[in-house]
Amino acid sequence: MSRPLSPRTVRLHADDNVVVAVDTVDVGASAGGVEARQRVPRGHKLATLAIPAGAPVVKFGQIIGFATVDILPGDHIHSHNCAFQAFDRDYAYGADARNDMVLPPELQATFEGYRRPDGKVGTRNYVAILSSVNCSASVARFMAEAINRSGILADYPTIDGVVPFVHGTGCGMAASGEGFEVLKRTQWGYATNPNVAAVLLVGLGCEVFQIARMKDEYGIVEGDHFQTMTIQETGGTKKTIEQGMERIRAMLPIAARARRETVPASELMLALQCGGSDGYSGITANPALGAAADLLVEHGGTAILSETPEIYGAEHLLTRRAESRAVGEKLVERIRWWEDYTAKAGGSMDNNPSPGNKAGGLTTILEKSLGAAAKGGTTTLRGVYEYAERVDRKGFVFMDTPGYDPVAATGQVAGGANVLCFTTGRGSAYGCKPTPSIKLATNSDIFNRMIDDMDINCGDILEGVSIADKGREIFNKILQVSSGEKSKSEELGYGDNEFVPWQIGATM
């Protein structure tokens, strides 16, 4: 008789004192060179060495927490015996920075994109209706719904849709300061994202976030591609909807003039996202997406890592890659801001892992962050940006955002991202407009269970597919989707409700 196969485990670094269970490990089973003393669910950690109380638990070659009791070889390691604890890190600014290899233009990959009048390149061709304030949100939706119901878009096959971007703020807020500036950057960032061909900005009229003020501050002149109106000035809901639809109808033939043309991959700005992470995220999908990000940088493009609370504890790996001390210090300054911000709200940075994250095997924010940071690949960190700030550097950059996926992605799109990759282990169903979202499953189970939502299965890395090969697969999918191939979330119609600007400050 053949002997039963031992449960599979993965040791991620020679210095680790844990392995990760690829298969569920039952009590008494031999796995990772030890005999399991408790059942270890797949994606969770198994101790391979004795770890005294107070000693570090090491995964990825990095500290992910500290033992709260004596841990024996074969023990299941999770929240019951491992906890977050702050400790000093060596930021070693720029120690690992290098001159990234960038291919000459003639060797760069290409895709079919929309070249805009300002020189930027879009991967989609939307007409947007933005609300300046929640008070005009319903009117913006009514306009978009009426246009989409009318069937007129059938006459303009090169237009991907008329989409409303509405939100819950714009009034009852301070007319200056951080919260106001964030909303202003976000609104203008969406209005000028290269995936948007034309914009109608709709306000109520008396709100704090005044359209006229934004136009003055950005030097905006209205024309065929950008127009504004308010409900109060136009004469109420019905008149605003009617006149707004007339304006949108006039924009459609102008937006439809855009045609895809062959452009280099250097025109791509990739947003890197993860949500519903699990114990496989840092082993499969995140490092594979990092490999794809490295390829994009090699081809002259830009990759944006975000979600500051989810790189907490891994920021020292990014500061080592900073092109200058100033870039590294800006990242650390944002980390300190978040420590203060969460403390004022009565929380801590270790509050971030969700119940789903923990069920999937992630114990502390340190462990989650080390896996999340892998999405950023290995190239030099070229810049650190405020939320929704226009990204103006090529290469790998970081944008300060919350960890909450729709808020983080909204900031990246406002910064200019024209394509997005999103890794998930528990099964996020996120989708985005105007920027297409490519979903990467960390494990084969969730890929097969949510096949209608997932674009790429990274679970086969556990079966022997290399990180490099999976990275090339992701990179090729990015080029295909950027050329017009619909992602799964686009086929399902996601994106109308995922515009979620970060609200900072008091609501008054």
From TrEMBL:
GO terms for biological process: D-galacturonate catabolic process. Coiled coil: none annotated. Residues 16-83 form the SAF domain. Keywords: Lyase. One of its GO terms (molecular function) is lyase activity. Belongs to the UxaA family. This is Galactonate dehydratase.
